[in-house]
Amino acid sequence: MENQASLLPPEFENETILKIQLRILPFVFILYIAAFLDRVNIGFAALTMNKEMAITSQQFGILAGIFFFGYFIFEVPSNIMLHKLGARLWIAPLLIVWGLVATLTGFIHSVTQLYVLRFLLGVAEAGFFPGVILYLTFWFRKRERAQAVAMFMMAMPVSNIIGAPLSGWILDHVHWHTLGSWRWLLILEGIPAVTCGILTYFVMPSRPAEAKFLREDEKNWLAAELAREDQQKPAKNVSALSAFESGKVWYLSAIYFTLIIGLYSMLFWMPQMVKSLSARYSNSKVGILVMVPHLVGLVAMVLVSRSSDRRQERRLHAAIPAILGGLAAASLGLTKSPVVSIALFAVMAAGVYCFFGPFWALPSQFLAGLSVAAGIAIINSFGNLGGFVGPTVIGAIAKLTGSTSGGMIFVGASLVLSAVLVLLLPMESDTW
Fold first, then answer.
1. Closest CA to 134 of 96, 80, 203
2. In whole angstroms, what is the distance from residue 376 CA to residue 372 CA?
3. Contact predicate 31/128, CB 8 Å
């Protein structure tokens, strides 16, 4: 089969990859938008929720981060279940459950209840992101993988480009049936996940062999290509246990941990930091201003991931943006100018978002079989604990000093550290 595939014209290869890109990537992209809205809309809800519920900055930091403990505990088993059951049968119920939990969050009456539901939201979402990263390895070869991951992860900035102005508008205008606007924000933005879960069950093919949009010759070619790449990987890295025993997996986990500190510190605290720039800003205006950095980050993310795939280079494409993002984050405390602050947030967003495509192309270069599922889940679950550390540290420092400046310096240092760790990776990908 491999010899037959190698004799096929380049047009066949390009047309098959394009078919897969057009059919798979837009769908998982939409699913991730639903996931990210539910994960980070608490940052906008805080603009009115914190005052109504008497939530301190320290409590909000814990509230934002507790999501990631549930995420951490259930991520590896969830990803192994996806590998065994298939994406359609596993991702669909996850979407429905977390959509229901997100909607229930709008009906809480105490901070303790909010803690519990945010933890449960993390449990429900735990299998989604690493599951999709694994899912993409079923469809894309190494040479297309960074761009495929980046196109999927474009949903992060896009969800904020859509969600920020929408959330600001809801906070200013939706006060139905005596419920506060922040409650409606959480309720309304949980509904898309339930809808997407039902849709996933009916339209998402688990593997290329189930893909009705591919011809048999296209399925055979793709299977041969992916099998050839798997054969070139070390034979020992095929079991779930081998991923836990791999020093490379834990090293990548440490890199991801420092990067995620920056991501979620930015996502959870940016609305409040932008709001503090002027007493005249309505929630709707805050939403529009918060949208700008994510729009810049989206464009940068696409360009860097394409460059990374074209050059088959990962280290510099991840490290340089992270350094720039870290310097921008640390500089946010030096200015009160709205224009300069939004510009710095834009550089920070670009630095963080550009990191993901090149970074997530690395694990599948040295893992194969079930170890890919376990390895991706380990990296993501451990790394996402940074989503607890970053927002919590900012909240604690803000309570002590009355300012987020010290916390953002910590965040900037963490992003620079992630870049340093990436630069210490071997130059040649085949050593991975």
1. 80
2. 6
3. yes
The answer for residues whose C-beta is within 8 angstroms of residue 386's C-beta and 6 or more apart is 68, 256, 257, 258, 259, 260, 261, 262, 263, 264, 414
Domain boundaries, the chain: 2-426
Gyration radius (Cα) of the chain, Å: 21
Cα–Cα separations (whole angstroms), residue 41 to 100, 222, 313, 347, 385: 15, 39, 34, 22, 19
d(CA 375, CA 372): 5
Say how far apart CA 346 and CA 359 lie, in whole Å. Answer: 20
Query: Are the CB atoms for 403 and 70 separated by under 8 Å?
Result: no
Both tokens of residue 278? 């002027």
Distance from C-alpha of 89 to C-alpha of 91, rounded to nearest angstrom: 6
pTM score of the predicted model:
0.81
Which helix H or strand E contains 302, and what residues bound it?
helix 283-311
Closest CA to 361 of 324, 303, 321, 312: 312
Q: Which residues contact 29 (CB under 8 A, 6 or more apart)?
A: 151, 152, 154, 155, 158
Averaged in consecutive runs of 10 residues, what is the pLDDT profile of the chain (432 residues)? 57 90 92 87 92 92 88 81 83 92 93 94 86 86 80 88 92 89 93 93 90 92 87 59 78 95 94 90 93 95 88 91 97 91 97 91 71 78 90 92 93 97 76 50
10 Å Cβ neighbour count for 181?
21
Contacts 24+ apart (CB under 8 A), 277-282: 277/336, 277/338, 277/341, 278/338, 282/168, 282/172
Q: How many CB atoms lie within 10 A of CB 179?
A: 13
Q: What is the DSSP letter of 239?
A: S
Fold exhibited by the domain 2-426: Growth Hormone; Chain: A; (1.20.1250)
